[in-house]
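Researcher: We're teaching a course module on how sequence relates to structure. For the next exercise, students receive a sequence and then see the predicted structure as tokens, so they can try to spot secondary structure elements on their own. Here is the exercise chain.
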Amino acid sequence: MPQVEPYNGTTDPLDHLESYRALMALQGSLEAMLCKAFPATLRRTARLWFFGLKPSTVSSFEQLGRQFITNFAAGRRQRRTSDSLLDIKQREGESLKDYLDRFTAATWEVRELDQSVAMSALKTGARSYRFLFSIEKSFPADFTKMLVRARKYAKAEEAIASKRSATEQTSKKQKRRREERSRPKSQSSRWNKNQPRLKSPPRPRG
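Model: And here is the predicted structure for the students to work with:
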């Protein structure tokens, strides 16, 4: 059975609450069990906060959850909105793959993703001519299909870049060999070549 990482009051309380709810739902836990088991997932400041609550102030897990989020709101990270995706642009010199990785990671932070906004943001943020020409010619039916198509173009771009790099390396090696063959020999090597070879002295007869 998966476990919920203990919460110590320094991270996003909503993330912890959602993970806890999902785990308890798998076990088919009832409302009363949600409240009773919750402190077992808390540590340090968070646990002290829980045991400092007055019983009369909590009548349901929903109410407990709201108080929990309110109390630890300082640790809550800013959630992205669908419109914030419009700010993600492919940088100059950045590959389509790297751009898609950044864009996709950002969509995971959006609670309720508006697919039409996400598609518009991906289209306006991309620089890849081939990909943009493709979606202008035949616009994808949904965001998932747009991403699949974009990944295909990103893979093709990587293959082309890899082939170009290999060709450039081969050209550099060939150029280096030609330069080495055409390079004049050193003065010392020419001098040694023109000097007569010294004969060894005759052996003395015994």
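Model: If you want an answer key for the exercise: The CA atoms of residues 58 and 74 lie 22 Å apart. The chain has a mean pLDDT of 81.
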